[in-house]
Amino acid sequence: MMNTPFKRIGLFIRKDDPVLESAVIQVSEFLQSRALQVFCNEPMSFLPAVEVISIGDFPTTCDLTIAIGGDGTMLSASRALAGSALPVVGVNVGRLGFLADVTLNNLHTQLSRILEGHYRHDCRFLLEAHLKKGEQPISIAMNDIVIHSHQSLHMIEFETHINGRFLNSQRADGLVIATPTGSTAYAMSAGGPILDVDLDALVLASVCPHTLSNRPLVIAASSVIDITLSEKNITTAMVTPDGRPGHLLEPGDSIRIQRHPHRIDLLHLEDHDHYSILRAKLEWGRKLTC
Fold it and tell me: Which stretch of DSSP H or E encloses residue 61?
C-alpha cells in the first residue's frame, strides 16, 4: 500500500452518466491499484464491485472525496458536504474548470502527488438563504444565490437591506449574490467584478436593472442581506442556489442571505494558479492584433 494520509476514497458523481464512464473507471482502477478502499455515492452499472454509500455517509466513512465531472459536480459535492471537514478534489472531465484541476491526461501523476500529501488547501465559504430569521436554510450555495422572476418575462420589484440598513429599492429581472468563487459565474455575466478567491467579500449584481444608475456592489462577507419582494409584484419569484432548482417566493416574502457557518476544504495541486486559469478561461493571454 502506498504511503498516503488518505486510505478510504469516496467518488462523487451526479448520476450514472455514460459520458463519465471512462473517467470513473480510470479513477477507480487507479485507486484500487494502490490498495485504497473506494466508495461511490451512486450505483455504477459499469463498476458493480464498488460499494455504494450515501453522500451523507462520506464524512464518517471516507478520508477524501474525489468529485468526477467538472465544476458543477464540485459545487454539488461541496453543498452536500457542507458542515463536514472532508476535503474535496476535483477531476475535470471536458472543458477547463475553475475548481476541478486534476486532468485525465495527467491523472496518475497529479492524483499520486495529492494522495501522497503534496497539495494546497483552498478553503471556500458558502452562502445560505432563509425565508426568515431562525428557520433552517432553504438553500445552500458555493457560487451564488439568485433571486429572479419565476416563469415570466416580467421584472420583479424588491428592496434590499444590508445589516438592517436600507440599501435600495429596484426593479430588475433579478439579483445575484455571489461569493468570490461565484464571481466568475452568473455575477460576471451580469456585469459584476471578478473577486480574488481569497477575499472575504460578496458581490451583489442586478440582472437587467430598470435604472442605468444601478451598479454592482462589493460588501463584506460577514454581511446579512435581506431581500423583500414588493407586494405590488404581479408574478412570483424564485430563489435559486448555484443554478439548481430553488424555492418559490410570493409577493411580500422576505429572504435572508448570509455566510454559511462552515467552509469547504478543496485540495489543489501544489502548482495550482488561479490567475493562470483566469487567463485561459477569459483569454487574457491572447496577443492583440491590428
Answer: helix 58-61
Residue 256 lies in a domain: yes
> 148 phi and psi, to 5 degrees?
-150, 165
Is the CA virtual torsion 231, 232, 235, 238 positive or negative? negative
Res. 289: pLDDT tops 90: no
Domain that holds residue 275: 8-119+269-282
The CATH number of the domain holding residue 174 is 2.60.200.30
**One of 16, 63, 71, 242 is an active-site residue; which one?**
71
144 φ/ψ angles, rounded to the nearest 5 degrees: -160, 160
The pTM assigned to this predicted structure is 0.91
Residue 200 bears catalytic tag: no
Greatest extent of the chain over all pairs of C-alpha atoms, in Å: 65
Tally of residues, the chain: 290
Q: Are 241 and 148 in contact (CB under 8 A)?
A: no
